[in-house]
């Protein structure tokens, strides 16, 4: 028992001894710290900078016999790139560079004097990114909430798939007004308008409109800050950037004066205040798309670039290890396809004239550097044809850095759209200057490259390289007038002679435009005709901006030697795009008058006429002429015969080479006849009238035999049931009119002309 008590005593003695030693050491340390810090007092004790940086002073109070000239200083390694110090007498001048990163940063300045040392903490606030300004409330002239729930709140619900729509029905009173009340305390730098992105008709996209704003000081007093004209049927995202920031904005009002199909719709309206994350790269790069370094820039300067991606870009350029092909390029403007289609009364040509050769994957961040936009609204579309053309996503681009989170995968296309009449093929200096005035430089930094082939700038050797390097499922190939997007695998397996393929497609497009008189009347389309694969389609089709084909059509796009044998398919679909409506596309002719162009292309390529090869001439005459039936039948090829015979007779036999060109031009420049679903027959009668007038021949007998002048009251299945009626009274009135005109008489049997007996009618 005594032994145990003795051990406890030793433990207590040891514990007390340790407490004494530690206390003594602590006192000594405090004394050392006091002595070390006592040699210097600093005011203030630490420094904090905002994100803009700048210079601040620390006042040094030296004590004792300290010689200020022997005081040294150093900055911790984590601050050497952005913090600098100058000691002048009793003042330490501390300077920090702007912080362009959305994270705070800290460092320490250490002052030394012999064995003494003093540390001064330095901190800098993070940069602030662009801020989306909240919307408190909104109101509009009308909103659809009865038939469908399309209220105005869907224009600011952060969902690009939903949309606001005006009350269903055409708007007759303008302007249509939409007014948003914003959260207070912000500066408005830009607005982004997102039209509908759903797969529907996209009616309601703004065309002409004004932006008005009010301030918090006078919320009911509005001032106009912008006028805009987007063009009709423009579904691209539009960015409205204000050169002068708008401070303390209370409300923003849109006065819309015209829109697509006289409706109003909006998927999302966004209001932004600019952040402070914009680093000045003008001292680093020569150009505005960051593709060339300035001469003499040092590696140290490049390593000081705050952004990881742009620092890596600059360093790669510095050592010559960066490929800018397809990543950095200039993108010329193309006319909004709706402009020329409205003039020509056709469907719209392509909106994919600016491929980039870049592909992206869903979920990745794409860094895009944009140069001077020259007043243009620039966007990119990301298209995955596996999902479908209509599922493409649009992303707006601003001058400078754009960091876009990809919501879908696919090939990237630039939209630099204008309403200006800039030709597709730039031949004159004036045309080139017009295009250059709105050409925009864009750099997809370190983006994944798939490449594309352009007949205007690439050759056969380039094609071999581009095709060999292509890694995405599809590849864009561009002609002068045509654009094909087809599978990379098919191009490889067919060993495609791409130059010949594109030259033939260019000629196909040219021939159809030339047949319609667009060359003669200087109305050639300012966009390409787009041909693309549809992975999910059941058969080829034509629609706005494109023609589409199933994978079974690979041969016609990838094997140049089979083009002539199979050209009917693409010529037929392109013919649908070029159909002039309604003058040459009335009820029952949707699958007829487009084939006028198919036949023209077929025969111009030296192939025998389909009507002759298939025996359609005799079938048509038996069905219509011998049967004394109206032309309005369901046999599309039979109905095509008289239209083609007019070409054979007027153009080939009589030498009236401008006959059809003038027919088309008449319908382009003449106001459309007023028709509805029950009066389509007057369009057929007017065609008879214009053929006689333009040819100078009385063709009544020809049209009588072919059933154009036979009374009819029927319903035609032409992409839906359509009523078609022509009365005997209408026919009699037309005959009196034409006979009174005194036109010359044609051959007696024009209805018998075929491709193999034209000489009999010379």
UniProtKB/TrEMBL annotation:
InterPro entries in UniProt:
BACON, Galactose-bd-like_sf, Pep_M60_3, Peptidase_M60_dom
- UniProt xrefs under Pfam families: BACON (PF13004), Peptidase_M60 (PF13402)
| Organism domain of life | Bacteria
| Name listed for the protein in its UniProt record | Peptidase M60 domain-containing protein
User: Which organism was this protein described from?
Assistant: Aestuariibaculum marinum
Which part of the chain is the Peptidase M60 domain? 351-651
